C-alpha cells in the first residue's frame, strides 16, 4: 500500500470515529423523548468536582422497585411502571427504559450523573442543586440509551439563571 | 572548551592521535553534533509550539464554552483536526521530518482534546482511563507513521497508564484512584504490561520504534514496584488482599511468559532468568503464599513469651531476600546480553538493599558511636565488594551460555 495513502487513512480514522461518536450522541439528544427528573446533591464534599456537578437523580421509584441486588447490569423501566430490573429480566411490556447498572450500594447508576458547567458559575449552581432547586432534562431513545439535555434551576434553563445573577 | 576537545588534546599530547586526525575528528563532531543538537532544539520547539497552539484554542473554547453553541464548538474542533490532518499529509511529502512529526504529534494531542470536548458537550460520564484507551486505539495507526521517537513515547506512556488503571478498574468493580488497597495490583500489572509491550515490539518490525519507550517504562515501573512491595512487605502491611484484583496481572504474566518462551531471540538461559523473575514477582505480590503480614523478625522481642519467630519465615527477612534475588537474576540477564549500564545499576541496587537490610536488622546500633563506626565500615565494605566483584560477575554473566 502506498505510504501516503496509508497515512491519509490513518489520519482519517480518528476523525471519522470521533465525528461518528459525536453524531450518535447528537442524534440521541434530538431524537430521544425528553423526560425531566429532580436531582439532589448527596455528599457536600463531592457535589462539585472541578468543572462539573455530580448529583443523585430522583427517578421516583418506590422502595419495592429499587435495585434487586448490587453490582449488576440493570434497566430502569419508566413506562408503564417505574421499576428497576436486572438487564436480562426487563419485561416486554416495558415501553420506555434506561440502561444502567446497580452499584455496590444497590443504587441505580445511569451514567447521567454528571453535568459540565463553566467554572465561574459552578458555585452558584452548586448551591442551587444543594437546595433541591435542580432538575435534569434527559433524552431517552427506544433502545434505552439516555443522554443529558439540560439542567433546570427552578424549572428554567441554568443559563438563564446565571445570566440574571 | 568541551569535554571532547579536552580529551582530544590529551590524546594528542600522549601521541595517540596526530594533528590531522584531531582536526578531522573535530570537524566531524562539529558538523554532526551541531546538526543533531539544532534539530533536537528545533523539534522540541516545534512540538512545544504546536501543543501550545492546540491548548490555546481548547482553552479559548473552554473559557467561553457556555456561550458558544454546541455545534459551533464541535465544528471548530473537527475543522481544526481536519486542517491539521491535511497539513500533516502535505508535510509528509517534504523532507522536513521534524515539522512533519511536530504536526503529527499536535494532531494526536488534539484528538485527545476532542474526546474531552465531546464528553463536555454531551455531559458524558466516564473515567479518564476510558478516554485514554479510546484515544490509544484510534491514534495508534497515526503514530505508526511517525519518524521520531517522541510520538511513540507519548502514545506508549498514555497507553500503559490507561491500560493499567482500566484493567484494575475492570477487575475490582468500583475502582477509585483514592483507594490505596488496589495499589499493589496496579504496581504488579504496570511492569508486566510494559514488559509485554516491549516483547511484542521485538516480534514485529512495524513496532520497533515503540521498543525504547516500553523498555523505559518497564524499567521505571519495575523498579518502583519492587521498592513499593519491599517496603510494604517489610513493614508487614497488606493483610487483606482481593485476589480478583490480580487477575489482569496474572493474565498478562501468562502471555508474557509464553512470548518470552517462544521468542527465538532469547537464549534458554535468558528465557529461564526472565520467567523466574516474573514468577518471583508474582509470588512477592501474592496475598498469602509467602507473607502473612504478621511475622516480623525485627519485632521478635515483642512476641509473647515462649513464642519465637523463625528467621526465614519472617516477612521482613523474606522481602529483602526476594528483592535481592530478583535484582540478581535481572543483573545476570542484563550482563549476559551486554547491557552494561543496567547491569551496573542492578548490582548497585543489590548493594544498597544490603545496606538497608543491615540497618533494618541492626538499627539500634546506629544510635551509638560504635554502631555508627560499624555501619560506616559496612557501607565501605559493600562498596568495596561491589567494586571488586562487579567486573567478575559481569564476565561470569557474559560467559553464561547454553
TrEMBL record, chain A:
It comes from the Bacteria. InterPro entries: GDYXXLXY. This is GDYXXLXY protein. It comes from uncultured Thiotrichaceae bacterium. The lineage of its organism: Bacteria, Pseudomonadati, Pseudomonadota, Gammaproteobacteria, Thiotrichales.
UniProtKB/TrEMBL annotation, chain B:
Residues 10-148 form the DUF2157 domain. It comes from the Bacteria. InterPro entries: DUF2157 (IPR018677). The chain crosses the membrane at residues 40-65, 71-90, 102-122, 128-146, 181-201, 213-233, 245-266, 273-291, 311-330, 342-359, 365-386. Pfam families: DUF2157 (PF09925). Keywords: Membrane, Transmembrane, Transmembrane helix. This is Predicted membrane protein. It comes from uncultured Thiotrichaceae bacterium. The lineage of its organism: Bacteria, Pseudomonadati, Pseudomonadota, Gammaproteobacteria, Thiotrichales.
